[in-house]
TrEMBL record:
Assembly with partners or alone: Homodimer.
Binding site for CoA: Q17, S18, R38, N96, F97, A98, R104, K136, V137, Y138, E139
Protein name: Formyl-CoA:oxalate CoA-transferase
Entry-linked InterPro entries: CoA-transferase_III_domain (IPR050483), CoA-Trfase_fam_III (IPR003673), CoA-Trfase_III_dom3_sf (IPR044855), CoA-Trfase_III_dom_1_sf (IPR023606), Formyl_CoA_transfer (IPR017659)
Family, per entry: Belongs to the CoA-transferase III family. Frc subfamily.
Record carries keyword Transferase: yes
Length: 415
């Protein structure tokens, strides 16, 4: 069966997490992704957080499926020539080096355009143009600079970063959308273009509702669905809202049976307005359905703490799956707090290809997250990540180099 991005060739100059997540998605959609790595060393994540000595780490293998690996020393003059040949042959160059690194290598936008005017050059950087544009950035820096950390955590504690890699993987996702959009525009214009996804911007895009709340706070001095209301105080900026819902339907995380020993025996419970009467029935507080202090969403806002305490008295009598089953019968929105162990063992996620077992020649079998985006006409087949330089000869041959030339370039340290 054909794939959505069949025929698209990507020069993948990415490393660590943000860039590789982007090119992995493109590879899953069928693009031929040629990962260029530094000869002898490769992507630094190959050796980071290793669980097996001398074997590519899970960090690397889980971010680089379905790619080919070539090693080129792009600071070596002959290595540069090989890179030029690749630029001429590819549709997209994706990179997430520190600001200026590609220019210092000699591959400015102007030079790339000379070599291939149809090429799309896509970059992840920490920041867009401005005071921080030259800074190197990792995940948590972006979470802090993009507004996530100041709005995550509890009011009486410090800012908190989230486990979801919204700075790295989130920005990789934004970049992938920019790339396919630019590829689509190229079908009309015939020209390449530059695509920039700054990690601060990507995080802020995902924190959009918090900028909404900043403006609500400035206008009204309070936000009634926040846990600070009605007894706490609001400052000038959006406060940390604990586990309150970011939307118009109040929610909170509540203990379930077993919480004393199981750190994940909790459920997220949403007091959605249309099912309020059903919630009252389930928790045995039928009188709240008509009581003037509880009957309407507005009346409930000052009492949310008490309401959730009462609901928790009920959830603590059930384990999180029992609670989920009962609540879903009544269309009450809720979600069990699933541990990574539970997710890894969940059969339905295996069935859909969201969790996949992959075999690797030096590591053996491991679990990975497959393609979360399902296309009905372009199925994803998750293939193992490449060994360092595994495809150098193959790709060099495709570029037209003879075995003798390849051997000479290897001796010269260019590949
Ligand atoms: N051959 C020769 N040299 C190579 C090479 C190759 N195949 N591939 C990379 N290099 C060189 C680069 O040219 C650069 O050299 P220079 O500093 O002399 O110009 C050097 O390797 C290091 O690249 P750099 O990106 O600076 O790596 P770093 O490890 O110092 O920094 C980051 C890592 C992630 C902080 C930085 O790349 C960055 O800020 N990237 C943008 C934001 C980002 O994506 N962050 C998220 C990471 S998950």
């Amino acid at each position: 069966m054909s794939k959505a991005l069949d025929g698209v060739r990507i020069l993948d100059f990415t490393h660590v997490q943000s860039g590789p997540t982007c090119t992995q998605l493109l590879a899953w959609f069928g693009a031929d992704v040629i990962k260029v790595e530094r000869a002898g060393a490769g992507d630094i994540t190959r050796e980071q957080l290793r669980d097996i000595p001398d074997v590519d780490s899970l960090y690397f293998t889980m971010l680089n499926h379905n790619k080919r690996s070539v090693t080129i020393d792009t600071k070596n003059p002959e290595g540069k020539q090989v890179l030029e040949a690749l630029i001429q042959k590819c549709d997209v160059l994706v990179e997430n080096f520190a600001p200026g690194a590609l220019d210092r290598m000699g591959f400015t936008w102007e030079r790339i355009q000379e070599l291939n005017p149809r090429m799309i050059v896509a970059s992840v950087k920490g920041f867009g143009p401005g005071p921080y544009e030259d800074c190197k950035v990792y995940e948590n820096v972006a979470q802090c600079a993009g507004g996530a950390a100041s709005t995550t955590g509890f009011d009486d504690g410090p800012p908190v970063v989230t486990g979801a890699q919204i700075g790295d993987s989130g920005t990789g996702l934004h970049l992938a959308l920019g790339i396919v959009t630019a590829l689509f525009q190229r079908t009309q214009t015939g020209r390449g273009q530059r695509v920039l996804a700054a990690m601060q911007d990507g995080v802020l895009n995902l924190c959009r509702v918090k900028l909404r709340d900043q403006q609500r706070l400035e206008r009204n001095g309070t936000m009634k669905e926040y846990p600070q209301y009605p007894n706490g105080t609001f400052g000038e900026a959006v406060p940390r809202a604990g586990n309150a819902s970011g939307g118009g339907q109040p929610g909170w995380i509540l203990k379930c049976k077993g919480w004393e020993t199981d750190p994940n025996a909790y459920i997220y419970f949403i007091t959605q307005a249309p099912v309020w009467a059903k919630i009252c029935n389930v928790i045995g507080k039928e009188e709240w359905a008509t009581h003037p202090d509880y009957a309407t969403p507005a009346a409930r806002l000052p009492h949310l703490k008490d309401i959730f305490a009462e609901i928790e008295r009920w959830t603590m009598t059930k384990n999180k799956f029992e609670a989920m089953q009962i609540l879903n019968k009544y269309d009450i929105p809720c979600g069990p707090i699933l541990s990574m162990k539970e997710i890894a063992e969940e059969p339905s996620l295996r069935k859909t290809g969201t969790i996949v077992e992959v075999d690797h020649p030096t590591r053996g079998k491991y679990l990975t997250v497959g393609n979360p985006i399902k296309l009905s006409d372009s199925p994803t087949e998750v293939k193992r990540s490449p060994l360092l330089g595994e495809h150098t000869d193959e790709v060099m041959a495709e570029l037209g180099y003879s075995p003798e030339q390849i051997s000479a370039l290897r001796t010269a340290g260019a590949i």
